[in-house]
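Run Susd and RagB outer membrane lipoprotein through structure prediction, thanks.
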Amino acid sequence: MSFTIFRKRQWKVFAMLLLSVGCSDFGDTNDNPNASRVPVPFALLTEAITGVPSTEAGRSLRGGIAGIQTVGAPEPMLYVQYWSESQYPEDSQYSTTFALWDNYYAVSLQDLQSIIDFNTNEETKLQMSQFASNNNQLAVARILKAYLFWVVTDRWGDVPYTDALKKNTQPAYTPQQQIYSDLFKELREAGDQFDNGSMLGGDILFHEDAAKWKKFTNSLRMLMALRISNVDPGTAKTEFLSALNDDDGHIIDNSDNAFVAFLDDDKLRNPLHVLFDGRDDYGASDVLVNTLKDLNDPRVTVFVDPTESDEYIGLPYGLQRDMLIDWTNENEYSRPGSAIRETTSRGYILTASQILFAKAEAALLNWTTDDAADLYYAAIQASWNQQGVFDQDAFEEYTTQDAVEFTGTEEEKLSKIGTQRWIALYPNGTEAWFEWRRTGYPNLQPTPYAVNASKQIPRRYAYPNVEATLNKLNYQEASGRITGGDTHDSHVWWDVQ
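Sure, done. The structure for Susd and RagB outer membrane lipoprotein is below.
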C-alpha cells in the first residue's frame, strides 16, 4: 500500500475511532469485559492536529493546529492585509468583535488532555503503552497542547488555563504572563521526556520522527521568547538562548518544516480551498500585491493568481460596500494564489524562514554573537526555496535593493526583518497578525472606513459572548484586568506597541 493511500485511510478512520472514546454513564450495564477501556490515541492525535471534519458539505476542518480557526483563519489575513474582501467588507472594516474558542477547548485541547490523562493514570497507562511509549505519547501531547494554548492566549489574552480541561464548567482565567511561564516549562520538560521507545501513530505532522519533534519544540520556545521581548526582555533572552543552545537543535532547514499535507478529499482538504469552493469573497490585497511587485519578488507568482489579462492587480483594501462594488465592476483583480489554496496545498505551521528571522532579530538585539545579516538573507532564501522560486542571480539582485538590503539603522533593520517575515509567513495570517502586533512591522495602515471604536486594526479578539452568562464571575474578573475592557481594541499583556 502506498504511503498516500495509507495516509488517506488513516485520516478517514480517525474520526470513527473517536466514537469509541466516550459513553453515557449507565454503570456496568453495557460494559464489555473484553473491550479496551482506553481511547485510541492516534485518532485523538490526528484530530488535534487537523481539527474536526465537518458533517456539513462545503465546510472546513475546525479547530486543530491546521484548521480554519488557526493557520487558515481568514480574519487575521484581512487584518494583516494579505487579502481584501470582494463582496462583504465587514471584517475588513473590523466589525467582528468576539470569537468562539469551543473547537480549541472542547476538541483539540481535550483530545490532547485525554492522551495525557490516560498515559499518567496508573490504571490505564499500561494499556496505553500498547500504542507507543507512554513518555513519547506524553511528550507529543504536551508539545501540541502548549502550541494550541499559545495560539489561544495570543488571540484573547488571559484565558482559562490552570483550571481548564478539568471538567470544570466555570474555570478561572489565568493571567497571560503566568500562562507563558508555564508554557515554557511544559515545552522544556516535554522536549526532555522523549525516550527510545516507539512513537505514536496518527502523527501526520512529523510521521513519528522524534528528532523533528524536538526541533519543533525548541523552535516554539524561541518564537515564544521573542513574543514577550518587549515586555519581559530578561526572561525572553534567557528562554531564547536556552532553546537556541539545546543539544536537540531547532528548525533551520525546510526539510524540518512543520506542515500538514492535506488530501484531495472533501472533508480532509486544505481549509483555504473551502473558502473559494463556489464562492468569490476574497481577492489578493493591493497592499500585498503592490509590495511584491515593487520589490520584483518572484513569490508573487505563487502567492497571487494573475488576472485574465495576465497581470497582478491587488483588490483595494477596506473599501465600503458601495465603493467596492463600483470598483470591482470596472476593474480586474487577482485572487489569492491557487498554489496556496488547492485541496492538497500544505498547511504550514512553522518554517525554517520563521526561525531564521527570529535568530536574525535576536542577533540584532545582541542576544547572540551571530551575524544578523547572514541570518536575514538565509531566512529570505529559505522562503524562496520553500515556495520553489529560488534563482541565485535573481536572489542577489533582490537582496541588493535599498528596500531589502540589510543596511541602515537598527530600527531600519528591524523594519526590514518585519516586512520580510510578513511576506514569508503568507498565508499564515494568524502568526503574521501576532507578529505585527508585537513589532509594528510592516507599517500597515487601517482602513479609513473602520467601524470599531478605535478605528485601528484589531489587537485581540473579545471573549466569546456566552462567557458573560455561563462563566460570569470569572469573565468579569478577567475583563476587569484588561485596560480598555473586553474589546478587540484592547491589548494583551505582551502587546505594548
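Confidence is low (pLDDT under 50) at residues 1-7, 11-29.
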